Predict the 3D structure of the following.
Amino acid sequence: MKTTDVLIIGSGIAGASAALKLARNPQRRIILITRDPDPHESNSRYAQGGIIGRGLDDSADLLVADILAAGAGASLPRAARILAEEGPELLQEVLVGTAGIVFDREKGGDIDYGQEGAHSRRRILHVGDGTGRAIMQGLIAALQKCPNVELLTGATAVDLITYPHHSRDPLAAYKPITCHGAYVFDRKGKAIHRTLAAVTILASGGIGRIYRNTTNPAGARGDGLAMASRAGARIVNAEYVQFHPTALSVPGAEGFLISEALRGEGGVLLTPEGQPFMERYSPEWKDLAPRDVVARAIHTEMEAHDYSYVLLDIATRLPAAEIKRRFPNIHSECKRVGIDITREPIPVVPAAHYFCGGVAVDEWGRSSIANLYAVGEVSCTGLHGANRLASTSLLEGLVWGNRAAGDIEGRITNLPSVIPTREDIPAWDESNLTQESDPALIQGDMQTIQNIMWHYVGLVRSGDRLSRAIRELRHLQNEIETFYRKTKLSDGLIGLRNAVEVGLVVGQAARHNRQSRGCHYRVDSVDGGDRLL
């Protein structure tokens, strides 16, 4: 059993930045866990386009206006204001100052600001097309220098430890739900440990892997959202799942993200016959329309004309040398699978990309469960509304990671409850579990979940599709829970149980909301959902 002041679940930009700020107090003890053996692995690592800065002709007011417009009227103005005002300063302090990130500059030495969809100004800071990778390398390197941060890899959170659920106290049922850490599965030692903490931060990332087509890495199964749901945390806006318009559609590289920055630098979407089509769907923004608009336009073109993909052309828009300089990773990955983006267009399809909903939190990252915070993609600050503006995700993780850490540091010594003892919380008991985890069953069930979500809870939804998804997911959840109750734990089994939980959360929210908005589009919308945009 381990005890600590703060347990952080997830090592992306939100979790890492929270740990860095908390570590400034040498007396503060922090444990940060991540399921992957590599601490750099997270959704943050795969962010290509960049992170929002403040351009020369830019302002907080302009950024707020762009966030609210992209959010389709569902964003929280206060959250947008916090991001716009605090984000650029934190970027300089934490990413440039502490993590040593060197963002791209023009030949004259000025910052090279990029353009992305639905932004009214060039304001995107980037490190080639590997901004997330550079940021995570810098943050993890800084964390590894902090003696009061214990970074545990290969450690999968199983469930949150909460009162009254995990308490032996007969009076616990009469007290508010309070989080005291988590049960953690050590993937190397195959053991489950109690990790008890005064405060817990969920920073576990997104849910993209519950869909058949996604840009997300393997760990994005919704682990944190599922744990919070089982613990009774309030979850909001779960119907708003953003699909990135352009994922590579080539065998051997499915799901590889083709950054929005390509369209920001002049890239144009074409039919397989070579005809541009975005002007018909968004005459004002064309190829720089918000992501939900572009993704549905591509989906409609593919369905109407039986296309397997559409094309994204940057080759005729930028010189080859500039393409290689600005997009080295995309150029390299496409070249690996036989596509030379300096000479030919890129086959692309939409893919599940970002979860705009999540664990409901206030402006400091506090959830509805005492002593439980949520930051980054697993949380819902209200910032993204019904559709996330490009390149806000990294900045949101940075801002709310720091805000949560600051709030915790101000409150932790005055918390009314203390960390439970070994005697208060029961150890994990596997004595009656006789079956070994079967990878074939896990993989088969996961593929079933992914297909259900893609076809019935995907880009285009209806009441009939959603009802069928919920029926099938409930049946599958019963089967998985029976399997879970008699099988020894594995990371795959934990992820499967979480994936079906999250699928139901998203499906039920989507069925409940009959109004099309942003990335939640219903053909049977009560407000006239037969329209595309």
In short: The longest strand covers residues 191-202.
